[in-house]
Amino acid sequence: MRIIDIRATTVTVPLEAPLRHANGCHWGRFVRTIVEVETDNGLIGLGEMGGGGESAEAVFRAMKAYLVGHDPARLEEMRFLIANPTASLYNNRTQVLAALEFACLDILGQAWGVPVCEILGGRLRDKVPFAAYCFFRYPNPATGEGETRTIDQVVANALSLKQRFGFTSHKLKAGVFHPDYELEVYKALAAALPGDSYRFDPNGVWSTEQAIRFGQAIEGLRNDYLEDPVYGMHGMRRTREMIRVPLATNTVVVNFEQLAANILNTAVDVILLDTTFWGGIRPCVKAAGICETFQIGVAVHSSGELGIQLATMLHLGAVLPNLSFAADAHYHHLTDDIIEGGLMKYEGGAIRVPDGPGLGVKLNRDKLREYSELYKRLGGYPYDQDPGRPGWTPILPNDRWADPKDSRPVRVPC
Ligand SMILES: [Mg+2]
After folding, report:
1. The three-state (H, E, C) secondary structure of 87-102, written as one string
2. What are 39's strand-pairing partners?
3. Mind listing the pLDDT tens digit for each residue in 179-220?
4. Could you read off the pLDDT of 12-36 as tens digits, one per residue?
5. Which residues are in the CB-under-5-Å shell of ion ligand 1?
6. In 84-167, which residue ranges form alpha helices assigned H by DSSP?
7. Cα 373 to ligand 1 centroid, rounded to whole Å
8. Predicted model pTM
9. Which of 173, 315, 330, 333 is catalytic?
10. How many Å lie between the centroid of ligand 1 and the Cα of residue 117?
11. CA of 315 to the centre of ligand 1 (A)
12. Where does CATH 3.20.20.120 sit in the chain?
């Protein structure tokens, strides 16, 4: 089997409302690049990349020079071919490698008639549990609906998500407002959802002292973990020495060098594995094996996904014995998907691992065309800018907080 073509199509799919975060905002939509890898026996494998609001089509076109003629089963060779660790200092292709690995695994599963999770060791579970992903949101500029800024709005949104999707774990994405206000919001969320568990993620924007203050203030709650309260291993280690809440990260342990450093001198309790950040599903399985050996916790990170990327997270979640927490996904914020059958369904807060060969998802070509046209009309968006605060630049540690009393709507293209 040989690769004969690589195609990439950028799409934009609307979200219910713009999602605010510590470094900017998802401006009411996701921009994702959908990758198709075709082989000489007529199979097409699917990959997906994105997250920063920009198209990555050009980089996948450039990969044709490397990969046409390559056997998609030779995945380790592909790693060194396009993302050799020292060459990557110049061309950083880890995320590109990830999308191509997804597509090649999809091809192999189709060729061998098995789901990707069977290639990865076989499923341990048929459904992967997910956490609700609660954001501070601007209102949808077209409808005026969906704002979550006040405590009442955030709590009402979390209760509605629980009712609609069955979540029993809830994540609050924070780092937008002053930490004292966000502490009030988090405590109110916990009080409104007794018996459930919670996690809090300010995207690393606090000082170490602020992280310690907040971590100590939430010790009595049913926390899964406190995620990236501060940016940097040493700040995380200092925080961890002073609080009794597990710390998690998707920012400072995102490769094997950092994982080794964390094991030799532990700063983080739970590693949030991201199939894109780590360069594919297989590196995540490998990292989870190291975490299993050293009894470090594991969960699945979401960097924003449509159905193809979600399928990679499901196959990963299916095979990890040490998946000790519900996975994260932005998925429930989407209004539609580009796969056949539309948005995958949540059942009791979980999503079924696809049973079909490969990743088990197929492109809906009409939807691909529709959302490709939408991308052409709207273009990309700056993930690291806040449409409500033009010219704002967050610093580390940050003190340039948004005002929770500021209810002005934002204008974003839609
Ligand atoms: Mg995070």
Report:
1. CHHHHCCHHHHHHHHH
2. 3
3. 999 999 999 999 999 999 999 999 999 999 999 999 999 999
4. 999 999 999 999 999 999 999 999 9
5. 201, 227, 250
6. 88-91, 94-112, 116-119, 151-165
7. 31
8. 0.98
9. 173
10. 25
11. 21
12. 118-359
